[in-house]
Structures are given as structure tokens and as C-alpha cells.
Amino acid sequence: MCQGRCPGPRARPVYPGADVRGKTSELTRGRPAVRRLSVRPGGAPLAPSDQRQARAAIGEALVDELWARTRIALPGFMGLMLIAWPVVRAAVTTDPVARDVYVATLAIAVARLVLTHVILRRPTAVTAAWRYRLMLGGAAASGVSLGALDVLFFQQLSPINLAVWTMFVAGMAAASVISMGARPEVFLAYAGPALGVIALVSLVWPREGLGVVGAACALWLPYGLLQAIDYRKSRVAFLSLNAALDSNVSELRAKNRELEEMGQRADRIFAALAEALPGKTLGGKYLLEERIGAGGFAVVFRATHVGVERPVAVKVFRPQAGNDTAEALERFRYEGRTGGMLRHPNVVDVLDAGLTEDGIAYIAMELLQGRALDAELGEPMAIARVTTILAQACRGLAAAHAAGIIHRDVKPANIFLQRQGDAEIVKLLDFGIAKVTTRVRATDDQLTQTGALMGTPVYMAPERLLGEESDASADVYSIGVVLYRALSGKLPYEGSLGEIMVKAVSGAPPHLREVAPAVPHDLATIVMRALAHEPSDRPTAAELADELTACLGRLAGVFSAQIPNS
Questions:
Q1: CATH number assigned to the domain covering 370-556
Q2: Of 19, 95, 267, 409, which is the active-site residue?
Q3: Which of these, 6, 36, 194, 419, could form a disulfide with 2 (CB 3.0-4.6 Å)?
């Protein structure tokens, strides 16, 4: 997009690999951005040898286009000549010269057809320069033969037949603006004799009623030439823009490879650090013992708080390519601040967060025993167990919402099933991209409004996928997706990631009972309400927890398992 004022007709041109920002608007206005190929990316002058190379590349591409379009147009030319036969038959059969020229015109077309379709079926068999010469010579031969027929037919055909023949010639010349417009001189070599002769003979040998035809041909020829020139300019601009984009893509790929290599080096460095960290005391408080988990942005260690001899889990920030900025570090620390605001049985307890003297960021949390819900997904889970798990998750979310915190990344991997004897306690994890509606500090608001799509798209509410303002109801939608998947074994929408996102913003998913008939009707209704397209139609997290608990009671009659109601 143009920033501020778009460049005018005198804007700096592009060449393959040049900076193309702001040029697309010129193309759409019909003012080609290419005037000369003399600028490198960034505005540095291009060496004369590189200018020649850039022009040669575009010139060869234009010849390739001319060759391809001529291959397509030649059968049409021959078809028109045969269609015109009833109009010119009287002149051809009575005048041997006209017959010979007519046959020669067809023979030239056949020769060009055989040359392009048979002999040189692969255009790379000859150089671009030779292909250009062949196209120019063939076009000139066809144009001269048509001009000769114009002279012969002008005196012999009736006014009506001559007008029809002129229409045929004008039609073929009009079509050649596209088929030969890539090189206007080739167009002129073909259309010049064909139309110019009609205009000339109408002046030399005036015939009643045909003066207008001659004047029309005289006007159309320069108009067609201007159209061909404009077409060539637009094609040069298009090819230059494509080449520039290809060059930029190549540069981006090279930079991506560099970033990947940097990331691999960072991973190796961090892996070495992670191997060295066990046995070290972090921040003077946490004795790291062993690594128990790793994610994209952090590594989790089992540790002991040396002051109180309490086992804890310590998450250590993991810098890598794309995650090695000050903002990424601040976002990690933001997770610690956000988690520390919550105290609830169904939310992981964040005990501490800090930055060591060596610059290692960490978050200390309660140590959990068990596994995340995503480890159990696949086939449909038991209805009672799903309802129990998600009712607890909703109570944890309700506590977060009451504290002004929107999780924004509710998914099975962030719903942890902790074993405490025979009981199973659900813990919500990872408030790293949570949004605090009651802002704690000014920078926190900036971290949650970067404009990027943060979270896991298949569990996102439609309003979040559309980049619209969202509230706590978006978390409820995510719980609905988890319920749907756990009960049916399938996501509400299936397909590629892009298809899932399009379907999610377009309408409601298939009803849960259509894909999982065993799910009771009242439970399915609760799930579909959570998946309502309009945020206002969804229940709150607290209401959803109550509805799931009540549903579970109805299903079980007298349900022996107690759901924590904190």
C-alpha cells in the first residue's frame, strides 16, 4: 500500500530485484512504473552491465510471450481466411494473380504454424533473438500478402463484399494488438501493410461508399499502434514487478534460512545451558533438579525452594529466533504477574517471578503431578468425566474473569489434570497472552494489543479471528470447542487451518448430536450455547460451570463424585 502520497508518473522505476513499494497503484491507474532499469534495491545506481542484463531478461520474456500468443493466434488467422473464402471467391477464381497471392497468404500462415508448432515446438531450441527475427519476418510476410490482396480485391470485389473483407482484415489486426502487442514493431509490420494499403487505395482509386472505410482504417492503424505500445509498457511494468517480487521472495527465503540457522544455534546454546542448569540455584532461591517439560518459549524444571524445602516447578525463559526481543521477555514476565494475581483451586498457583543477575527470566509455580487434557483426546471421552473436568475448568475461568483477567488461550494443552490421591483436580495453565481488563501497569496494555493474532486459532472465538474486540465470552467459546472435541472426538470445524478459520467466522458448526448422537440432548444444548456465534448469546464461565454441574447431576441421578465448588 502507498504510504502518504503515492508516487506519480515520474516515480523511480523498478527492475528485477528493485524496491517495488508503492508501484502497484501506478499499474492500476494505467501508468506503468517502469521507465528505465537503473536502480538497485534501496535506490543505489545499477551498473551498466546489470542494466543490460535486466533489460535482456525482460526482453526475452516479451519474446516468449510473443511466441506463445502467435502459436495460439495462427490457427484463428487461417480460420478467418477460410471463412472469408465465399466473399473473395469470385475475385480469386477469375484473377490468377489474386489466386496466387491468396494461396501464398495461406502458405505463409501454414509455414508459420508448422514452424511454431512442429519444428520449434520447444522455443528454447533457438535463442530469443532468432525467435524474434522469425516472428518479425513472419508477421511482415503475412502483412504484405494481405496488403497485396487488398489492392487486388479493391477493384474486383463488389462494395458489400469489399466492406466485409475489410472487416475481416480489421478484425485480424485488432486481435494482433494482443497477440503481437508485446513487441509493437511486430504489430506494425503485420497491421501496417494490411490496413495501410486499404486507406491508401481508397484515396488513389475512390469508390462510391468506400471512402469512410478507408478513413476508418487510416485512423485505426495509429490507434492500434498506440494500444500496442501501451500494452507493451504495461507488460514491461508487470514483468518487472514480478521479477522484483521474485527477487524479494528469494531475499526473504535467504533471511529465513539465516533466522533458522540462528534459531538452531540459539537452541544449541540454550540446550547446553539447560543441561548445565540442573544443580544450580536460580535467583538464590530455587535449586533446579531436572527438566520436566519444554515448550516453544520456555523450559520447565523440577526444583526445590531452598528456604522452605518446598518442591516447585520453575519455568525458564527460552530465547530463540523470533522470540529474542525485549517485548518477548516482558511478555514472559507478564505471565508471572498475571498468574500471581489469581488464587483459586482450579488455577495453577504462581509463587514467584524474577530475573537473575545473569539475565535468566523465570517463573516459580506449584509442582503438579499428572498430565494435560490433550494427552487424553482422540476418541470420545466418557461423558461424566468430560463434564466434571470442564466444570472445574469453567470455575477457574470464572475466578480469572472476576479478577479482570481474560485467558485468551484456553485449549486442552492448558487444562492440566492433577492427581491428588483418588481425586482429579483441574488446573488452568499458561496466562502468557492473557488480557487484564483492570490494567496493572501501562506496559501491560501494550503487550496485549500488538495487532498480532495470539493464541491457538482452532479454539478461538469468531470475533478474535476477525481481530475484533473480545471479552470473557471468547474464553467460554474456547471451552465450548474443548467440550465438543472431548465429547465427539472431533473439532467443530474440520479441514485445513485456513478452512477452519473461514468456517468459524461464517456460521454455526454442525450440532453436537449430529456427530455424537450418544451425547444427551441437554448437554449438547449447553455445548452449542457456548459455541454461539454472537458473544452475547453465550453463558458466562460461572453460568456454564453451574449448567455442567446440574447436567451431570441429572445424568447420574445421585452422583457420588464431588466437583470442587470453590
A1: 1.10.510.10
A2: 409
A3: 6
